[in-house]
Amino acid sequence: MPADLADLRHLIDGIDDRLLDLLAERIAIAEQVAAYKQATGVAVRLPDRIEAVKARCAERGAARGLDPAYVREIWSRIIEETCRLEERLIGVRTG
Questions:
Q1: How far is it, in rounded angstroms, from Cα 13 to Cα 49?
Q2: Cα separations (Å) of 28 from 13, 47, 89?
Q3: Is residue 46 a part of any domain in this protein?
Q4: Is residue 53 part of a domain?
Q5: pLDDT tens digit string along 27-78?
Q6: Is 69 a domain residue?
Q7: Are 85 and 27 in contact (CB under 8 A)?
Q8: What distance in Å separates the CA atoms of residue 53 and residue 47, rounded to the nearest whole number?
Q9: Rounded to an integer, what distance in angstroms lies between the CA atom of residue 17 and that of residue 13?
Q10: Would you tell me how many other CB atoms lie within 10 Å of the CB of residue 1?
Q11: If you ran DSSP here, which 8-state letter would residue 1 be given?
């Protein structure tokens, strides 16, 4: 017998909280990446790396029953925000 809607929403809220924790963890690591890139002169935006991450995630998402285009869209936004953070931390001027 299915749980009631409130129970299902509570489960979704818990998943949302875990996703937020993981995004915060990713950003914390990106701060370390920015420091490394600044120290070594590596560019913030590496198109080949960006494409590889999106492709890997789309493939892994598909294996889990997710639409690869949906996953690529989500990762595009995550990567863009990460790059903007790195640029801000390094002091790269954009636009």
A1: 32
A2: 23, 22, 12
A3: yes
A4: yes
A5: 999 999 999 999 999 999 999 999 999 999 999 999 999 999 999 999 999 9
A6: yes
A7: yes
A8: 10
A9: 6
A10: 3
A11: -
Look at residue 95 and tell me if it is in a domain: no
Q: Which position has the higher pLDDT, 60 or 93?
A: 60
Residue type at position 12: I
CATH number at residue 54: 1.20.59.10
Question: How many of the other CB atoms lie within 10 Å of CB of 30?
Answer: 19
Contacts of 6 (CB under 8 A, 6+ apart): none
Identify the domain containing residue 69 by its residue range.
Answer: 5-90
- The per-type count for the chain, helices as H runs and strands as E runs, is 3, 0
Residue 92, token pair as written in the block? 């790269």
Give me the number of domains the chain comprises: 1
pTM, whole model, 2 decimals?
A: 0.87
Alpha carbon separation from 46 to 17, 51, 83 (Å, rounded)? 30, 9, 10
